[in-house]
Amino acid sequence: MAKDKKLVESITSMKEDFAQWYTDVVKKAELIDYASVKGCMIIKPAGYALWENIQKELDRRFKETGVQNVYMPMFIPESLLNKEKDHVEGFAPEVAWVTHGGQSALQERLCVRPTSETLFCDFYKNDIQSYRDLPKVYNQWCSVVRWEKETRPFLRSREFLWQEGHTAHATAQEAQERTEQMLNVYADFCEEVLAIPVVRGQKTEKEKFAGADATYTIEALMHDGKALQSGTSHNFGDGFAKAFGIQYTDQGNQLQYVYQTSWGMSTRIIGAIIMVHGDDSGLVLPPKIAPTQVMIIPIQQQKEGVLAQADQLYETLKGICRVKVDDTQKSPGWKFAEQEMRGIPVRIEIGPKDIEKGQCVLVRRDTREKYVTALEQVPEKLAKLLDTIQQDLFARAKAHRDAHITDAYNYEEFQSVLEKNPGFIRGMWCGSQACEDKIKEDTAATSRCMPFAQEQISDVCVCCGKPAKKLVFWGKAY
């Protein structure tokens, strides 16, 4: 049994060192490996299977709103990137440049895309001519490169996977409606599929996307009390259209500029799944996103009839859930620990004595509760159990988040809360960037969003004491 525990004992405790716990889990659960290029990661099958499920479900939801998928080149000419001043200044420190093709120096440097606004704008200026061509509601699944100084698997890497939607509309109202619609798609996906509660709101001017008129965000709270920006949706107004000359002829035969949006979610959301639901034994995956929802573990599988019964159970269940049989030669204890490390929501134990009684044992990953179940009742019982686990994970995550939301009414209180109850701080704000800068410099906390559900919890700014304009969620973040 001691050997069976080795897998779990190699994980640092959350309370001892949360950052090391996170690194241990992504490595021991075989989600990633480190690449020879510093700051880049190899996403292994277990990690990529999570991304495939995320991609599949998001893509389905996108298409229900009329989105079509396209693909843009990964290289952006420097002259094209420079067309929108605020945009290029925002990304300049993170851009990777291609200067040579083979042995020859390029006449113009090529940027390896950090994001694709300029590529879509260059395309739209030729593709959009008339009001009949609108709206354009496109999305691409791709990788992007940002030369980050400090990296951590999934959360911040120099190359990562994401989707980026880019739309063009005839009116400002249509663009605003699409911006809010896509933010709600992200929020519903996180809560319904990933079991992660989020706060929906608008970024401040300081924190908005470079070149956007307005940026909207969903913010999630990790187990250690830090926030994670989990998806963003941007309203560009007509700024990019004017910079790139994207015009259309309206029904009155007059030239008009389009209004644009952009929205994205990346592989960093896998980091959120790990840090919201995981424990000291490894991953805890919500059933709706788990690549394997159920693992059947035969006990004393060398005995006659055990593997056959496990296989029969597999055949019964494969139509209602994502199920596998672990028929490797490892000990049952090792298999249990490995299943827990990988976060598989339910394991089914079945051995000779169970077969004699016509039963098996269902074990929840999240609570370790065991349910002795008649074999003929397994399909019905399992379907209900998976639903219950999904709901319970969301309820626990929401309870944890709500317990770590604290109101602060002055700066002394604000600083005290950060130390005593890490999480979201609700505090009023005067609207001055000077206060945002001071809070970040003094405490490392930033404005996470101005929630859509505004309240007047005080009349004065939590930082400077001047008249307040907005309620803001503040916090330290990844």
Low-confidence stretches: none
| Structural class based on helices, strands and sheet pairing | alpha+beta
Distance between the termini: 38 Å
Compute the number of helices: 15
**Radius of gyration of CA atoms, rounded to a whole number:** 25 Å
Approximately how much helix is present in the residues? 25-40%
Largest sheet: 11 strands, mixed
Strand percent estimate:
25-35%
What is the count of β-strands?
23
**Principal-axes shape call:** globular
Spatial strand arrangement across the major sheet: 3-7-8-14-11-10-9-22-23-21-20
Please, what is the average pLDDT? Answer: 95
Keywords:
478 residues; alpha+beta; 11-stranded mixed β-sheet; 5-stranded mixed β-sheet; 23 strands; 27% strand
Description:
With 478 residues, the chain is α+β, with helices and mostly antiparallel strands. It is 36% helix and 27% strand. It contains 15 helices and 23 strands. The protein has helices spanning 2-9, 18-28, 45-64, 78-81, 85-91, 117-127, 172-192, 239-244, 268-277, 306-317, 332-342, 352-357, 378-403, 411-420, 433-443; strands at residues 32-34, 41-43, 68-69, 75-77, 96-101, 104-112, 136-145, 159-169, 199-202, 214-221, 227-237, 247-249, 255-257, 259-266, 294-298, 323-325, 346-350, 359-364, 370-374, 405-407, 424-429, 446-451, 470-475. An eleven-stranded mixed β-sheet has the order 3-7-8-14-11-10-9-22-23-21-20, with helices on both faces. It has a five-stranded mixed β-sheet with strand order 16-15-17-18-19, sandwiched between helices. α1 runs parallel beside α11 (332-342) and α3 packs across α7. The protein is globular and about 80 Å long. The chain starts with a helix and ends with a strand. The relative contact order is 0.11. The model has no long low-confidence stretch (mean pLDDT 95).
